[in-house]
């Protein structure tokens, strides 16, 4: 793996939903709680974070409301940068050094995405937050998370979900017979139309041998447990 070091290296995906606490904007108390859980394991694991932006804008929704799709997607990407800066702030407050790297240049607030530099930051104990997605319309932050995990040599993707604590046989919010799965494969997830992440992202993980753990953000200490490699939620493998 590029820049292999002694500690485990993982990629944490936080969707926009997580930041907003179910609403539009950033919920400071929620983000502070997540930041403190990440900072708590700083000596044990190297962490990169990909942030979503759905709490601000989703390109597909703006496009359905009449905007040009590509421009709407750029608005969506800018939303992820707001989340990245909010997470950075609470991590720094918790004593955790950070760097934000964005796929769209914005020199005053973030470094550009430079993979080898991101690896070096993690080796030095900094948490690297990736913002602005891939910098390309028609992509999602799920796909970016698979790509960044592969490029910086993360051993697995940790998908923090809001409102659900793993992968179920059906949507547990709609179907009371839904059962939680401890393990499934990307192929099963694709065939059963289980939307733990978008299909492009699952295909990329499957093709490149990248494991993923899907877990709930709500229960106390869950982020820390996931970062430490404990077997919570659902493991998805090729
Ligand atoms: N987006 C994009 N290219 C990317 C990543 C994101 O165009 O590489 C846009 C897209 O419009 C998306 C929005 O940014 O709807 C927010 O990202 P996403 O929906 O993945 O966030 P999440 O669902 O994780 O909150």
Automatic annotation (TrEMBL):
* Any one cellular-component term (Gene Ontology): cytoplasm
Localization annotation: Cytoplasm
Q: What is this protein called?
A: Uridylate kinase
Q: Which organism is it from?
A: Nesterenkonia alkaliphila
- Aspartate/glutamate/uridylate kinase domain span: 9-215
**Keyword field:** ATP-binding, Cytoplasm, Kinase, Nucleotide-binding, Pyrimidine biosynthesis, Transferase
The protein's annotated pathway: Pyrimidine metabolism; CTP biosynthesis via de novo pathway; UDP from UMP (UMPK route): step 1/1
Characterize the regulation of its activity: Inhibited by UTP.
The UniProt record gives the binding positions of ATP as 13-16, 54, 58, 168, 171
| One Pfam entry name | AA_kinase
């Amino acid at each position: 793996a590029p820049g292999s070091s002694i500690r485990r290296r993982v990629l944490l995906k936080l969707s926009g939903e997580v930041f907003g606490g179910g609403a539009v904007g950033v919920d400071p108390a929620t983000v502070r709680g997540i930041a403190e859980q990440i900072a708590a394991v700083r000596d044990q694991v190297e962490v990169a974070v990909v942030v979503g932006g759905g709490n601000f804008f989703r390109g597909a929704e703006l496009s359905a409301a009449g905007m040009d799709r590509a421009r709407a997607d750029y608005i969506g990407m800018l939303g992820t940068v707001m989340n990245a800066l909010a997470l950075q702030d609470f991590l720094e407050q918790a004593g955790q050094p950070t760097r934000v790297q964005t796929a769209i240049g914005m020199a005053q607030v973030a470094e550009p995405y430079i993979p080898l530099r991101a690896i070096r930051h993690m080796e030095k104990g900094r948490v690297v937050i990736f913002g602005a997605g891939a910098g390309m319309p028609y992509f999602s932050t799920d796909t970016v998370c698979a790509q960044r995990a592969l490029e910086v040599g993360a051993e697995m993707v940790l998908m923090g979900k809001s409102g659900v604590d793993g992968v179920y046989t059906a949507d547990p919010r709609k179907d009371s017979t839904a059962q939680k799965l401890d393990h499934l494969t990307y192929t099963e997830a694709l065939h059963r139309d289980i939307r733990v992440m978008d299909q492009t992202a699952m295909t990329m993980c499957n093709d490149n041998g990248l494991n993923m753990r899907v877990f709930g953000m709500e229960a106390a200490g869950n982020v820390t447990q996931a970062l430490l490699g404990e077997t919570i939620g659902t493991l998805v493998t090729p």
